[in-house]
Write a structure and sequence with these properties.
This protein has 16 helices and 20 strands. 39% of the residues lie in helices and 21% in strands. Strand 8 and strand 9 form a beta hairpin. The protein has three domains: 218 residues, HUPs (Rossmann fold), CATH 3.40.50.620; 83 residues, Chorismate Mutase Domain, subunit A; 126 residues, no CATH class. The protein starts with a helix and ends with a strand. The protein has 457 residues and is of the alpha+beta class. The protein is elongated and about 95 Å long.
Length: 457
């Protein structure tokens, strides 16, 4: 049998190289569970304290009857090493929809992130090559694409995994060589969790049949990360072609000219940018079919799962529409009296009145830049949303034009019209914010008028 000290040397070499690459006096916060892997990481980093500021953080999940004993063990180990330890207790919902394992992970990283923010510390975890290999297999079994198969990154913002390409056997050898004492979490033996089933039932047979499985799968994750990076670069390029005013919009005509793979790639990218959970592949195919329809007048409404928004198509443009804009709240859209304030919170946004010279007054081709005159003391001005039958007199010749026709001409999408603020003076429609001003209320005396602008959040 090989010498544990010799086999554990890879851990020492990896951590030494890692510390040498850090900026001088970097503060590291080790995610310390008390298990073998994090104990090895903490011990190895402690040997390089002249170059770094080192501390540890233990998250007490309260899920095991042994949790208190584990916290005591972690404190004792850190005391022996002369390392400061923070213990955070978190409450885990045992009935969380995503599963108790995922809920614990979210709570753990939230606690670590909050703690690290206090001194701008880098969070360091003990993930190793076998963890990476297991993650690749689990993602593959879930049908993930390159983003999922890329598994864990060596560095992600302020989260570092210096041992990610070190074999689990080398960590165990380091622990044996240095007589490191560690706790055993009994939940790691529970076959209810998919990772445990993989680790306990599948991995031993896989490694017997394919001894290099750990390193090969970890390398595959690197290749998938490269593939994902290329896919994102392509999506960024395609987004510049299909983008409109901002990243909540996507023009469908140029999108339809892309190949099917690029269409779906851009859809994934666009949804991710709007904080939408990823679509299952069959759902993505169905979305593509619907969006390929050339009937741009067709009312297409798509809802991503678990997202507080819908995707809607209007005039050939795909819009990301938060539910707050699809389902207006009566309470938030009550009329507000306006007395000339420059800023008024209204509905899901804010109405701003910009004071500028009204050079464009009377220019019917540029109604959106027309300024309204300031309110007179005898007038009662209100800010409200549309009423049935609202009409506005844009000029003495055109007569009164319906709110719907004005908004259609301005290209305002139907779901925004229900939220859009209008201004009335003594019950007469005086302006539609940022769209037009009624003829009788345009500032025409060469003085500074007020340009009402509204943008939903």
């Amino acid at each position: 049998m090989s010498n544990p000290t010799a086999r554990g040397a890879q851990v020492e070499q990896t951590i030494a190289a890692f510390c040498n690459e850090l900026a001088a006096n970097s503060t590291l916060c080790v995610a310390y569970s008390g298990g073998v892997d994090s104990a090895v990481l903490l011990h190895a980093l402690a040997r390089h304290r002249p170059n770094i500021v080192l501390r540890a953080h233990h998250v007490h999940h309260g899920l095991s009857p042994n949790a208190d004993r584990w916290a005591v063990h972690c404190q004792s180990t850190c005391d022996a090493l002369g390392i400061a330890l923070t213990v955070t207790r978190v409450a885990i919902d045992r009935n969380a929809p995503q599963g108790i394992e995922a809920a614990a992970r979210v709570a753990r990283y939230a606690a670590l992130t909050r703690d690290a923010a206090h001194d701008n510390a880098l969070i360091v975890t003990a993930h190793h090559a076998r963890d990476q290999a297991e993650t690749v297999l689990l993602q593959l079994l879930r049908g993930s694409g390159p983003a999922g198969l890329a598994a864990m990154a060596l560095r992600s913002e302020k989260l570092l995994r210096p041992l990610l390409f070190v074999s689990k056997s080398h960590l165990d050898a380091y622990a044996a060589a240095h007589s490191i004492q560690a706790i055993h979490d009994e939940s790691n033996d529970d076959p209810h969790f998919s990772r445990n089933r993989l680790r306990l039932d599948v991995w031993p047979a896989l490694q017997t049949a394919f001894p290099s499985a750990e390193s090969s799968l970890a390398r595959a994750a690197l290749l998938q990360a490269e593939a994902n990076e290329l896919a994102e670069a392509m999506a960024l390029h395609d987004e510049t072609v299909c983008g409109v005013a901002d990243r909540t919009l996507l023009a469908l005509a140029p999108w339809r000219d892309l190949s099917s793979a690029r269409r779906r790639n851009l859809l994934r990218f666009w949804l991710a940018n709007n904080s939408s959970p990823a679509l299952a592949f069959d759902r993505l195919i169905e979305w593509e079919k619907q969006l390929l329809s050339h009937a741009d007048s067709q009312n297409i409404v798509l809802r991503p799962a678990r997202a507080p928004a819908t995707v809607r198509v209007y005039r050939g443009v795909m819009h990301w529409v938060p539910d707050v804009l699809s389902e207006p709240s009566a309470a938030s859209l009550q009329p507000i009296q306006w007395r000339g304030e420059n800023r008024v919170a209204f509905g899901s946004g804010e109405l701003n009145f910009q004071s500028q010279s009204n050079d464009a007054a009377g220019d019917e081709g540029n109604r959106a830049t027309q300024r309204i005159r300031a309110p007179k003391p005898s007038e009662r001005w209100l800010i409200r949303t549309r009423n049935d039958g609202d009409r506005i007199a844009l000029s003495p010749k055109s007569g009164r034009v319906s709110f719907k026709n004005v908004m259609q001409h301005a290209g305002v999408s139907p779901w925004l019209r229900e939220h859009w603020p209008v201004l009335t003076c003594n019950g007469v429609l005086a302006a539609i914010a940022g769209v037009c001003v009624a003829h009788d209320f345009v500032e025409t005396d060469g003085q500074y008028g007020l340009l009402p602008l509204w943008k939903p959040q």
